[in-house]
Write a structure and sequence with these properties.
Layout lengths: L1 H19 L5 E6 L5 E5 L7 E9 L7 E6 L6 E4 L10 E8 L3 E3 L3 E2 L4 E5 L2 E5 L13 E7 L2 E8 L3 E4 L9 E7 L5 E3 L3 E2 H5 L7 E8 L2 E7 L6 E10 L2 E9 L5 E4 L10 E8 L11 E2 L3 E7 L4 E6 L9 E10 L5 E6 L5 E4 L7 E10 L3 E3 L3 E4 L9 E8 L5 E7 L5 E9 L7 E7 L6 E5 L10 E8 L4 E4 L3 E2 L3 E5 L4 E6 L9 E10 L7 E7 L4 E5 L9 E10 L8 E2 L3 E4 L4 E2 L3 E2 L11 E2 L3 E10 L5 E5 L9 E2 L2 E2 L3 E10 L5 E10 L2
Parallel strand pairs: 49-56
Antiparallel strand pairs: 1-2, 2-5, 3-4, 3-6, 6-7, 6-8, 9-10, 10-13, 11-12, 11-14, 14-15, 14-16, 17-18, 18-21, 19-20, 19-22, 22-23, 24-25, 25-28, 26-27, 26-29, 29-30, 29-31, 32-33, 33-36, 34-35, 34-37, 37-38, 37-39, 40-41, 41-44, 42-43, 42-45, 45-46, 45-47, 48-50, 51-52, 51-55, 53-54, 55-56
Length: about 675
């Protein structure tokens, strides 16, 4: 209940505040002979009054445009010079600003009267000033001489057909209607003879130029009789709006300072208006020239730009002249283009300067000049530094080099050179396109990293495609080796002498078993070493494969990364255990070799007695001799074995020895 009481009091308060003020309302609109309009309104209450504001809403822009602001409460009339009320109907409303609120009136329109003629039948049309509040409007139509119009007839319609339209008639028409507020709306005057005029000569625009950031529009004086003014139009979207009126037939120049012709192109047209207020057809729409897509190329010291083609010219276009020069110098013609060509390239510019260009269109009887466009001509940056900081062999056994240059300097990329020796002939083997990533990487898929080491250097190609400085030389490392016997693997490598600052140490990595990459550190040797002996005697349970890799560590780890050698594999004798005695009645009931990953392929074991006779053969490493000969127990004695087997990679091995059979 309490909330309803508060709401009720609020409503009462609102009505009481409203009742304290009387807002202004537009009472009528009167069109004058020159197209201007008298706006009349009712007086607002004095208490708290601050100002009147009158707004216009035209057909092009729905946003209200303020046309008057006055703080005199007694001002009740205003002559609006730019109403163009003899050309179109627009809407108006008034705001009354009080100290505690703002009140808006209803919207009204000026009455715009128009005539059209079809043969002997004429049609008169007009609009209502506002929506009827009670009953229909009673429009009074007047007819007669321009200065002596007399009442003709009344009607509630807004269209009237007239018979016997005579083009030689001096008669004018005008419509009046009394508003609900007791003030008379008066339309523009139109004459019959004016609408019989044949406007075959719309104005001809002969110049659309830009000067000091303003569009300058010029046209030839109209050839039509009795022209008293010109309407200047600018196209906005798909509509044409009046932006100015020039009074007088010879007043054929207009300067538009309400737009920016240096960032956009604008279309203009002109219509001639005779003494009857009748406009001619639009002239052909013309636009200002606009330079666009301007770009300087420091490599060729040239500038390239285009401009919009000049359309709808009333006379022949001869050529486009390209004017320009350094800003502090007097401009001159730098090039000429055919009328169909709207793109140019100007070469031979100075770097680190400022230039200004503009386009001048030359026609038979007209011209057009664009807004000047300025451009700076900075020189491009040259790379100062280049570093080839790694040459290595990756895990896929591909030679790989890494390089970098100035991070903030644009380049095309790097030429890659390779040689078989440090001081030998270097051959260009490829190009790395710079993609903005640092470092850049090149992989040499044609390098035979298992056979030899290689020497590399790179050369910068700057952003203009010019060859610049070369890097130092870096090499890849080559690792070789051999099995000295079953206990020693001998490794040796090439001397690494291309690091500035030298080598700190060599790190040797090893793995056991076929297919296992050597990531386990085996040993670290000094920079003066070039070989290493790996004692594998104590290693058991292998398949005979030993995988090695060398890492070269530079002293200067700030400017270089370490270099890895190729993967080198040594194939030793598989780890096979052959007993020298066995007891068929004991734990080992068969005689056979024991080893990891013995390859059944090509396997053969033969047992001989002391006289060299074959007493047993097997083609499987899993089938041994059980101490029998032809199903009978063999005598305890010494026997000779011969075992032939293969490694997993197909390498063949043979083992011979003496075994003792005990019982």
């Amino acid at each position: 209940m309490k909330y309803w009481a508060i709401f009720f009091l609020f409503i009462i308060y609102s009505f009481s505040v409203e009742a304290q003020h009387t807002k202004a309302s537009i009472t009528c609109l009167e069109t004058l002979d020159d197209g201007s309009m008298v706006i009349n309104w009712s007086k607002a209450s004095d208490k708290g009054f601050q100002k009147y504001q009158i707004f216009k809403i035209d057909k092009v822009s729905p946003a209200p445009k303020e046309i008057l602001s006055t703080s005199n409460v007694s001002d009740l009339s205003f002559v609006y010079k730019e109403a163009y009320a003899d050309y179109e109907s627009s809407r108006y409303f008034i705001k009354t600003v009080f100290s505690d609120q703002i009140n808006s009136s209803d919207t009204v329109s000026n009455i715009y009267l128009s005539l059209s003629k079809k043969g002997a039948l004429g049609e008169i049309k007009w609009n209502k000033p506002y929506k009827e509040k009670s009953g229909k409007f009673k429009f009074d139509l007047y007819k007669g001489l321009m200065t002596n119009l007399k009442f003709y007839k009344s009607t509630s319609d807004i269209i009237l057909s007239e018979t016997g339209f005579d083009c030689s008639s001096p008669d004018y028409y005008q419509v009046k209607v009394m508003s609900d507020l007791g003030c008379e709306y008066i339309s523009n005057k139109v004459c019959v003879a004016c609408f019989c005029n044949d406007y075959t000569f719309p104005p001809i625009i002969d110049s659309v130029s830009v000067k000091e950031g303003k569009v300058q529009l010029g046209w030839e004086p109209s050839q039509q009789k009795k022209v008293v003014r010109y309407f200047i139009f600018r196209k906005v979207g798909n509509k044409n709006i009046i932006i100015h009126i020039n009074e007088g037939i010879n007043n054929t120049f207009f300067e538009d300072d309400q737009v920016d012709p240096c960032s956009s192109s604008f279309e203009y047209s002109v219509s001639a208006v005779d003494s009857c207020g009748l406009p001619s057809p639009y002239s052909t729409f013309q636009h200002n020239l606009l330079i666009k897509d301007m770009k300087f190329d420091p490599c060729t010291k040239s500038v390239e730009f285009s401009w919009n083609n000049y359309l709808n010219a009333n006379y022949n276009i001869n050529a486009y002249e390209v004017w320009g020069g350094e800003i502090l110098q007097k401009p001159f013609i730098m090039a000429k283009n055919k009328a169909t060509k709207t793109k140019i390239r100007i070469e031979g510019l100075k770097v680190n300067s400022n230039y200004k260009f503009f386009i001048r269109l030359k026609g038979d009887k007209f011209s057009s000049t664009s807004c000047p466009a300025e451009i700076k001509t900075p020189d491009y940056n040259r790379p100062d530094t280049l570093a080839l900081f790694q040459a290595t062999v990756n895990e896929e056994q591909i030679a790989e080099i890494r390089m970098r240059s100035d991070r903030n300097v644009k380049i095309e990329g790097y030429n890659i050179f390779r040689s078989d020796s440090k001081d030998g002939l270097f051959e260009n083997i490829g190009f790395v396109n710079y993609d903005g990533k640092i470092p850049s990487v090149f992989q040499d898929h044609n390098a035979e990293t298992q056979k030899q080491n290689y020497f590399y250097k790179v050369q910068i190609i700057d952003e203009c495609g010019l060859e610049r400085q070369e890097s130092q030389v870096l090499q890849t490392e080559l690792l070789r080796g051999e099995s000295v016997d079953d206990a020693i693997n001998q490794l040796f490598w090439s001397v690494y002498d291309t690091y500035k600052g030298g080598v700190k140490e060599y790190r040797i990595y090893r793995s056991k078993g076929a297919g296992f990459f050597p990531n386990t550190l085996l040993s670290v040797v000094s920079s003066g070493s070039a070989d290493y002996k790996d004692n594998i005697a104590s290693i058991i349970g292998t398949d005979g494969f030993y995988n090695y890799r060398i890492e070269v560590i530079p002293n200067d780890l700030k400017n270089y990364k370490s270099s890895f050698s190729n993967l080198f594999v040594l194939r030793g004798t598989p780890d096979v255990f052959i007993p020298n005695a066995f007891n068929p009645n004991g734990v080992n009931k068969e005689f056979r070799p024991v080893g990891k990953d013995l390859n059944p392929e090509g396997y053969k074991m033969i047992i001989f007695n002391r006289w060299g006779q074959i007493i047993f053969e097997s083609n499987s490493p899993f089938k041994g001799w059980n101490g029998q000969v032809n199903g009978s127990l063999a005598e305890p004695d010494t026997y000779v074995y011969q075992i032939i087997f293969q490694n997993l990679d197909g390498s063949k091995f043979e083992k011979k020895g003496i075994l003792m059979l005990v019982r």
